Predict the structure of Carbohydrate ABC transporter permease.
Amino acid sequence: MARAGLYFAAVLAAVLCAGPFVWSLITAFKQNRDLYDPRNNPFLFNRPATPDHVLYLFSDTAFLTFAWNTLWVGALVVLITLAFSLPAAYALARLDRPWSGPLGIAIFLVYLVPPSLLFLSLSRMVVGVGLQDSTWSLVLIYPTITIPVSVWLLMGFLKTVPRDIEEQAMVDGYSRLGAFVRAVVPLVFPGIVAVVVFAFTLTASEFIYALAFVAPTHEMPVSTGVPTQLVRGDVFFWQSLQAATVLIALPMAFVFNLFLDRFIAGFTMGAVKG
């Protein structure tokens, strides 16, 4: 009975979590008269389904351009985040220096500053380097969000790796950098996956900086491009909005589930030893 109750709770949680996604998928193919009638069941097609609103998303908006901008910006931000956060986390977790503790706290405090307080000063910096109204401004700005918290996550993962492993690698002739790359990085790979997922999802969903720094339609990411194209005054292209939600969520959910075990293992390691 206890196991049956556990499975029932798991199935119930899955249904509740999947409910909004199923509703979005059904709504994307509903006719206007079906959607706007409050007497109709929102989870059923009370009138015949139509693909017109999904086709409108591709034919009358720059949705594919938004998706491509989000993809390449997210990929670059992930690479920049790993390039800076891995060495920083290793230095703070492994090197016994008096400044390690205060510097780690300072890095984390940077993440706690609300974006609404920073985008004005950051906009001056973006203008100063000539990246205003360019997607490259997001590549410059987003790492200021992802690197601080990624450093703290990776510090927790690195503390789970015994120092003896890299010391043995250095005894065998590797430098500290070589020991880090060949002995430590493979062991914290679940943590790296967790950071990749975190950095990419944060980049794809961020709104304030994307709205403040990028105005041309062909430069916008999904987070600002879709609402700008599909919310016009008091007119909401609701079915197309839901179609965009589903089309963005599906590939991200698929990739996330491919690495789910490593993602959970990484966060568990960091939580236990961090």
User: Anything to note?
Assistant: The beta strands are 231-232, 235-236. The first helix runs from residue 2 to 28. The domain at 62-273 is CATH 1.10.3720.10 (MetI-like fold). The first strand starts at residue 231 and ends at 232.
